[in-house]
Structure formats: structure tokens, C-alpha cells
Amino acid sequence: MGFDAVHGQAGAIEVLTRALAAGRVAHAYAFVGPSGVGRKLTALAFAQALLCPSPQPSPLGGEGRVRACGRCLACQKVERGVHPDLMVIAPTPPATNPRGTVAIRIETIRELEGWAGLCPAEGPWKVFIVDDAERMTHEAPQAFLKTLEEPPARTVIILILSEARGLPATVLSRCQVVRFSPLDEEATAAILERRGMDGPTARLLARASQGRPGLALAQDPKAWAEQRERALTILDEVGSGGAGALFKWTESLGRDRAQAEQLITAWWLWHRDLLCAKAGADPQLLIHGDRSEAVRAAAEGRSWEELFQDLGACREAWRALQGNVSPRLTLETTLSRLALGAA
Amino acid sequence: MEVEIERDAFSKGLQMVQNIVEPRQTLPILANVLLETEGDSVRVSATDLAVGARVEVPAKVAARGAITLSARKLGEIVKELPSGVLSLKVQENAWVLLRCGGVSYKLVGLAAEDFPAVVPTSPPGWVSLDGKVLKEMLAQTAFAISHDESRYALNGVLFIIQAGRVRLVATDGHRLAVSSRSLAEGAPGSGIVPRKAVQEIVRVLGVGEEVQLALVENQFILRMPNFLLLARLIEGQFPNYEQVVPKGHPCRLVLSRTALAAALRRVSVLSEERTKPVKLVLAAGALKLAAHNPELGEAEETLSVDYTGEEMTIGFNSRYLLDALGALDAEQVVVELKDAMSPGIFRSWEGEEYFCVIMPMRI
Fold it and tell me: Quick one: B180 and B214 in the same domain?
């Protein structure tokens, strides 16, 4: 772990190491950027640097001690997720229904505040990482405001979220925003190759994940390819089979939010390729490079306007899923727009 | 690790620390107790990260080591075992073999490395106190701890050890309770001890035995023979409570504590349920308590008191008065008042060891 394990986020790391070096650590940070680019890894590395009793000077020079040693007990506890002064909060299903919608609830925020009110157990700080912070339920950000504005001494709160507008402006204005961006294709592929992927797969996944190595690593490449195939099969079948085929698919798929998200992403990527092909882009740029013929043929049959509309439909569907619209309803609407040409 | 322990002593030790283990845990290992060998004993530790306790149980140590086991299951097992010697042996992959007489258990353990340390953060400077006195002081203040979690500095009891005195203070903004005693000598220190730790201290304190306290950086520590309790202090500044303690109130009356408490209980039956207001009307030679409720009716009771000052009326939450009276043990209570808008002071007749300041209510 440590900052060295984070790739391609030099800007964000610079902001954080400067704060450490100057001894001017903000009480609340918002790490904003797409998932899978190293936000949580950076947050953990930052926590490790804060909690390490013998931090090392930066290899780049400077006076401040900004790097966790990585060897001491405190550093190891952070890596194993058992450090008593580090609390990582993630969305959970409601206590009464383990299959319900995951969210960060007001009770969890209250619990966090209770811990923040105590002195640190072992280290010089208490660090709270709130992953997927946009999943806070309606009252949770309200309850959080006071603590975010003026947390108890020696407290650092890190909110991880993918879009600044995912949380009320009142919350974000109390945090120092640190931006994270997708990596370029080279860097992503390099990370994937280091993790043992072969070159062509790494390149393909780097492009498909849009520079988010965490996302590409989250699933096995074979499963990813199957998922992509299936997304296109569904599109074809619904296109030829009409409403009957549509309802058959959505009935079996509509319960799983994660799967719905994957399908929407796959369709979005497909339409992106169609747009590239229509614009006459280099086939190298295609994510579905292995079926460039099919892409070209499909692109020819579409007007610019249709393609833009379809991409818009995917984007809207993605937002709907983030906004907690039922996955089945979202899939039905999207499919009827993409495959049946509904408005 | 391989040890032999007397079942009765082990059971008693487990009971002393077990309560701290919370049923719902953020880290799975916190559902366990840590068993580690230390000289000729086994140390049993439990923690919920806010409060930790450690007890030493004499044992025959055949092989040194450490392991953690489910606190609940170990407690249940040991409770049911017959008196006698039980043996614990750690095997491969953190399996633990527990034997006692003809009974044997093979238990799933978790490695001890990840168990949070239950040790002082820095070398403590101890002060000694009678356990019974400490328990009394906590009872005299703990009721005034605030339940408002947004004012976290008030969610505990402030301990101050200074100039040969130990002083405990708690307030919720409506009332303030201060209890102090003199000490032989000791290292100065101060810190806010959270409610859960206070409850735990009260639970483990017996009667009459000597205990030792220390306030070190970030921690409160209580030590008894073979036993150690550590609590993380509350972060932040306790308000300047001395400022709100009124001085030189002109009206001073002395009355029987039990008579006043009994009268308050009788009259407040008809008080409105939420804030339980009671009106105190003070006149020469008499204190009248009155309560009314538009839906139920009215109640009043007059106590004769030795009072010669001016007539005055003041309202209080009767629950707060009863809490304060209940915390006193003297037969005579001294009440000091100024006017309807100023806080009242309730203290014992005998000395300066305890007092409670209560804000009045508009009635």
C-alpha cells in the first residue's frame, strides 16, 4: 500500500503530501472522481501516512515526513483493516432487510460521530473513510453537516464519491475537494499487465474500462467478454423479437441492480463504437475491435441523430439507476428506446 | 499456548471483562476475548475499542502464547463446566482444545495479532482511592451526563485530579453535579470519561477495596488487584463549569432531605409528564410545593422550614430535584436560591463534598 501503490493520480497525491508535509491537514476531504481509479487506495495510503508513528521523508525531497514506513505495526494494521483509529464506512442494506437497497444511513453517521468524539486509541489521528458517499440517504448528509464543519480535534474525514453533484453543496463546501481522473490507456494497460493480464486483453480492458483499472480488475476478463456478448445478444433479440422478447429478458434481469448497471455500460460502449465508426475513426480506437465489420455495418444504418439519442438514453438510464429507479423499469425503458426505437 | 486454569477463577475473570464485548461489532475480532500468558497467569482482555478491560487469572503455564476466542461462547462453556482444572491448548490453524474433566471442546480461534492492544498509552501516574468512595462519587454525578450526542464533550464525567483532590463533574446544560474528595497524593491530570466507561467502572467496583486511577494522554485507567480497565477519553473541552456555579445566594434554607424528596414525589404525580414541573413557593417559615395539570388537577404540599427571608417563587423540573436529592446521603439538605431566574444549589449540610446546580423553569 502507500502512495506508491497509486498510479496516475499525481495531482491528487501532490495535494495530500503537501498537506502532510506542511502539517496542515484539512479536517474533511472529498475525493471526487470515477470509481476504479484509485480513490480508496489513495484514502488508505493517506490514512496510513497519518497513522504511521515513524513516517519517512518524501523521496522527492522536502522536509515534511509524508510517507508511511509500511513496516511498523500501525502500518500493517491499516493494511489489514484492523487499525482502531481507522474506520471505513460503506453502504449497507437496512438492518431489517439484508437484501434491501444499500445506503449510508443516518445511524451509521451517528455512530461515526460517536467515535470521532473520542480521543484516538493508538495513533495521533482518527481517520474516517466514507466510501460511496453519494449513497447517503436523505437525512444522513444533514446529520453530518455539523461534524463535517467542525469535527472533534484530531479527526480527518474522507468522503469518496464519483460526482460532485452526488451530495448537497452544503456538504461539499465543508470539504477540501481532491479530484481524481481516469488514467490514460497506456497507464491502465500497464497496471493490468503488471497484474498478470496478457497484452491484448489488458489493452482491450483498459479501453473498455475507460481508464479505470480498478473496474477492469474487479472481474475476470472472460466474464467481462461474456457479459459484453450477452448485452449485444439482448439488443439483437429484442430488436427482432419485439416487445415479447423485451419482457422476457427484463423479467429475468430486472432484479439485479449491479447487472443492470453492467448492461447499460455495455450498451453505452457499443454505441460509442458506432459513433466512432460513423465518424470514420481509426478501427484501433474501437472497444469492439474484434468485430469492427459488424460495428461499421451497424453504424452505417444509423443517422447521427439516432446515435446521439441512443447514447443519451444510456446516460439517462445510468443516472436513473444511481438515483434508485427500479432496475427492471430502467432496463425496459432503455431497451425499448435502443432496440425498438421508442422515443 | 498451553495452560491449566481453575475453572472458578477463570469464570470470575471472564465475567469481569465479558460485558464490554458488544454484540454488534465493526471488526469480527472484537467479539472475542484475548487470552495470553503472562508469568504464572493468563491475561484475559476484552475491548470494544472505546473501553477495554484486562484481568489476570493464575494459571499453570506449560507453553507460552496467545489466542482469541469468542467471548460469548467461551463464557457459556465455562459457566456450565464443573469446578476443577480446565486446560486450554492452541493447536494448528488457531484451533483451541479446551478440556475439563471428561468434557472436551475444539474451538475456532482467531490469531491474537489483530486484537487491539489493551495497554496504557503511556506510563501512568497513579492515585489511590477507596473503591466505595469512587462508586459513590460516580453515582453522584453520572445522572447529569448529557444525552445530546451533538455536544459530545458533555457525554461523560470530567475527572480532575489536582492539588490533593479528586473532583468529578457532569452536566447536561440543565443541571451540573460536582463531587470532590481529598486524596493522599497523586499525579495531577484531567479528562472526560465517556458514559459507557462510567457504567463499566461502576459495575466492576466492589465495596471497600482500594483502587488506583490514572489519567494519561487520551486514556483513563482504573487498576485493581489483577484487573485493569482502560477507557478512551472524550475529545474536546469540557465547559468552564465553575463559571455557572452561583456564589452568594441570599436565600438559604435547611430541610430534611427525605421529607423534601417524599413531598416532591407526591406533588409531582400531577405534573405534566415531559418536564415534570413543580413550583416552589417560599415564605416565612413555610415552603409550599405545587403542581398542576389542566387535564388532571392540582396538588400542593407545605413543609415547614426555618426561613425568614423575602417571599419568592421558583419552578424546577422535579426529576432533576429528585436526582440531586437521591445523590446526597446526608439527612439534612441545604438549598440556596436567589430569584425565579437564577439557578438553585443543592448541597449536603455536612460539607463541601458534593453539590448540584439546577436551572429553574419558567412556570
Answer: yes
B151 and chain A in contact, CB less than 8 A: no
Task: Please give the Cα distance from A17 to A160 (Å, whole number).
Answer: 18
Range of the domain at A195: 183-218
Q: Are residues A82 and B194, on separate chains, in Cβ contact within 8 Å?
A: no
Q: In which domain, by residue range, is B174 found?
A: 127-243
Residue of B nearest to A81 (CA): B27
Check B152 against A84: CB less than 8 A apart: no
Tell me, letter by letter, the H, E, C secondary structure of A104-135.
ECHHHHHHHHHHHCECCCCCCCEEEEECCHHH
- Condensed to tens digits (0 to 9), the pLDDT of residues B226-285 reads 999 999 999 989 999 999 899 888 888 899 999 999 999 999 999 998 999 999 999 988
The whole-angstrom distance between B18's CA and the closest CA on chain A is: 19
Question: pLDDT tens digits, residue range B146-172?
Answer: 998 888 999 999 999 998 899 999 999
Q: What CATH number has the domain bearing residue B303?
A: 3.10.150.10
Say if residue A119 is in the same domain as residue A268: no
Between CA B279 and CA B363 the distance in angstroms is 7
| B153 chain-A contacts, CB cut-off 8 A | 117
**Residue B122 falls inside a structural domain:** no
Of A113, A119, A152, Cβ closest to residue B218:
A119
Q: How confident is the model at residue B214 (pLDDT cuts 50, 70, 90)?
A: very high
- For residue A238, the domain's CATH number is 1.20.272
Chain A residue with minimal CA distance to B26? A87
Distance of CA A46 to the CA centre of its chain: 18
